[in-house]
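Hi team,

As requested, here is the filled-out complex form for the hypoxanthine run. I kept the field names the same as last time so the parser does not choke. Let me know if anything looks off before we queue the next batch.

— J.
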Amino acid sequence: MTPHNEAKAGDYAEAVLLPGDPLRAKWIAETFLEDAKLVNSVRNCLGYTGFWNGTRISVQATGMGQPSTGIYVHELLNTYGVKTLIRVGTCGGITTKIKVRDIVLGISASTDSATNTSVFAPYIYAPAADFELLRSAADYAASQMIEYHVGGLVSSDTFYVDEPARAYEVLARHGVLAVEMEASTIYTLAARFDAKALAICAVSDCLITDEDLDAESRQSTLDTMIDIALNVAARETTG
Ligand code: HPA
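And here is what came back:
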C-alpha cells in the first residue's frame, strides 16, 4: 500500500495500461478485460487487473498532467514491481502531417515541465520510448492496416496554451507531431527504474485546423488505440 494506492503486493500485472481518465480505466477494464477486479480506488484514481486473451493485464488511471502521473508511475514501478507501462490517451495534432483519428506512437516526449529541468541540469534529457515496445506496436498497427505515425510528442504542463499554433510551431518543425500531458514523465521514470514504456495516443483534435472528432469516430479511434496497447502488453508479458 502507498498513500495513493490501496492495492496489495501482486495486485498489478507485469504490464499496465495507463489512461489519464479514471472512467476510461473503468471502461477499458469492463469492455476489454475478463474477470477484472478493482485494485485501487483511492482518490477515485481507479486501477483494475483482469485477463485479456488469457494474459493478466492491469489498467491504472494516472489523472491529468505529469505531477499526478509521476506519483502513480513511481509507485507502480517501485512498490508493485510493474515492468511495462503503456500510456493510452488522446493527443492534439500540432502539424498537418497527422489527422484526427490517426494513432501516434511517441518515439520521444519533449516537455516544458520543471520536473525534468531541475533533475537533469545542466543537461536537457531526452525522454524516449522503449524500442521493443515501439517496434511491437508499429508492427501490429501495420499488420492491421491502422493509420499510425511514429514521431515526437510534447508533454505540456498547460492545456490552455495561448495561440497554440504559434506556441508549438518550433516543435512541429523538429519532428514533434502532437501534444499531450503525461508521456514525458512516464518515459523518464521507466528509464530511471529499468522498466519499459510507450505512449500510444489517438489524435482527438488538431490545434492547427481546429478539427476535432465526432463521438462515433472518437470511440472507434479509442478502440483501435486500446487494441494496439493490449496486443503489445500481452506480447511483453512473460508469465
Ligand atoms: N493539449 C494537451 N493535451 C491534449 C490535447 C491538447 O490540445 N488534446 C488532447 N490531449
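Two things worth flagging: DSSP finds eight helices and nine strands in the chain. The mean pLDDT is 96.

Thanks,
J.
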